[in-house]
Structures are given as structure tokens and as C-alpha cells.
Amino acid sequence: MDRHILHQFLRKFFVSNGCQLLEENDGLLRIQLTPALDEELMNRPFYWRYKKKLGQEGEPMELTLLTDPEQTAEKAEQIHFGSPRLHQIFRLIRSSAQVARLYEKLDTNSRTALYPWLIRNMSVHFSGKRKRTETHSVGLQLLNGQFMTNAMENFTEVDFKQQISDHCYCLSPIIRYPSGYQRISSYMQAYLDTLDTDWVTETTSVLEQEKSLLAHFFDPSSQEEQDEEIRQERAALYDNELAALSRRLTPTIHIETINAGIFYLSEDTTRQLLQRKEA
């Protein structure tokens, strides 16, 4: 996840959850948390339990996040994809609202149609000798099936609201949501098929080497003089080590949906976003 995209994502997350931005510059966000987000993010269960028991209002903390690794600030924490804090926020989003529904904010006096877009924000986890994670935000227009990559990045300049604006109306989707999810899954699979598979070959080779070493270490011919109980213990240990080795080194790709949403956009905004994508 590009740090500028991450910065905008975090900004929208905290503002939309009622937090006050105390300070913001390139690569730094200082946020006054709400009591609800303090309870969710700051790991102070005993404090909040005590305050509630006494019938008192708690004092939520401030949180300073650095999206630029070269930035420093007092009592600040670096946040990047893969950091525990970001995954904590992802889990909170998943648990609170898996699917959002937002409408472009428009000021118009004429009837304006809004086009439905299904957006899926996903993490792609590659496991093997080396582990890495990619993030993807893919949009699907639910009328004509057109795709948009980096959807949330494109949407950062669009103002959305939870209620539809006056004089606007939503066009009914032709592509149903389950079918749209599947289309995006197929799109991601096509993307994965284009990737270099050298990492799979490398990981598989390392896995076979590790298996050979493990088999040599637990060679049954070297255990002939051991009693039956010891041989069984070693056999069980070998099976456990082999299973752990396979879990660690078998090359796998796992796609995880972080969240999803239906975004309604005007035709003009849709055209501008797609033209920007093609430029």
C-alpha cells in the first residue's frame, strides 16, 4: 500500500468515525480518539471497565501515526502495511461493517442518475520461503461490467455521504452483488496468472531439500537398536516436524477481503475517473 494512499485511508477512517484531527502533515496524523475507538484500539479494558462501573466518562487518548518512515514525533508509532496497528484497524472495519453504501455528494437542481459500483478492497498474501502481501482495490460497474483498479485511490478526491443528495436517484444494478463479487475474484485470478512463478519453483525446491534433511535426521535405519516406545516417539516427532515444514514452506496464495462497499457515482465523475485511469 502506497504511503500516500495509506495516509488518506487512515484520515478517512478516523474522521468518519467521529475523531478530531489535531495535527496533520505529510506523513503524520495526530488524532483525538473517541471513547469508542479508544476502547477498540488502545487496549485499556480495565480503565474503561472501571470508569463505567463508577458511572464516569473516560478520557480517550490521542494517537499519533506516522505513514512516512522518515518522520519522527514524540509518542508516535510507525504504521505501514503489515504493522499490527493497521491490521487491527482492518479487523475493526470487517467486524463493524463489511459492506458500506455511500453516495456521491452532489449539488444539483436537475434529476441526476447515480451509477452503482461494487468495490472490494483485498489483501493478497503470498506464503513460502519469502512472505509478502499486496493490497488491491478493484471496482466493478454493476451496469456494464467495467473494471477499475486502484478504486479507493481514485475515490479519495470524491466527496461521499451516507444519504443520497437531493434530485439524485440510483440506477438499479444489472449485475447482482454475488455475481459482482465472483467477477472481481475472477479478475484477481487472471491477475495472479500473469505473475512470475519463480518464487513457487524456488520455494518448492527449498521445501524438498528441507524434507530430505529431515528424513535423513530421522532415518529409521539408525533407530534399529532403540526400543519400540522410543521409535514411536521419534516417528510422531517426525510427522509433526514434517507437517510444520509443509505449513511453512508450501507455496500458497490467499486472497482476503478487507472490506467492500457499493458506491454510487454520477456519470460525469465516472467518466473523469476512467479517463484518469487510461491517461
Question: Explain this structure to me?
Answer:
With 279 residues, the protein is of the alpha/beta class. It has helices at 3-16, 35-41, 45-54, 84-96, 151-155, 177-193, 198-217, 228-249, 267-278, and strands at 20-25, 28-32, 62-66, 76-78, 99-104, 112-127, 132-141, 147-149, 160-161, 168-170, 252-266. The chain is built from nine helices and eleven strands. The strands form two sheets. Strands 5, 6, 7, 8, 9, 10 and 11 form a seven-stranded mixed β-sheet that branches. Helix 7 (198-217) runs antiparallel to helix 8.
The total of helices stands at 9
Rounded average pLDDT? 84
Shape: globular
**In what range is the share of β-strand residues?**
25-35%
Question: How far from one another are the termini?
Answer: 21 Å
Q: Give the radius of gyration.
A: 25 Å
* Classification by helices and strands: alpha/beta
- Number of strand elements: 11
**Largest sheet composition:** 7 strands, mixed
Low-confidence stretches: none
Elements, N to C (H/E)? HEEHHEEHEEEEHEEHHHEH
Range of helix content = 40-55%
Q: Quick summary of this structure?
A:
By secondary structure, the chain is an alpha/beta fold. Helices cover 43% and strands 27% of the residues.
Outline the secondary-structure elements.
Elements: H1 3-16, E1 20-25, E2 28-32, H2 35-41, H3 45-54, E3 62-66, E4 76-78, H4 84-96, E5 99-104, E6 112-127, E7 132-141, E8 147-149, H5 151-155, E9 160-161, E10 168-170, H6 177-193, H7 198-217, H8 228-249, E11 252-266, H9 267-278
Parallel strand pairs: 3-4, 5-11, 6-10
Antiparallel strand pairs: 1-2, 2-3, 5-9, 6-7, 6-11, 7-8
Helix pairs in contact: 7-8
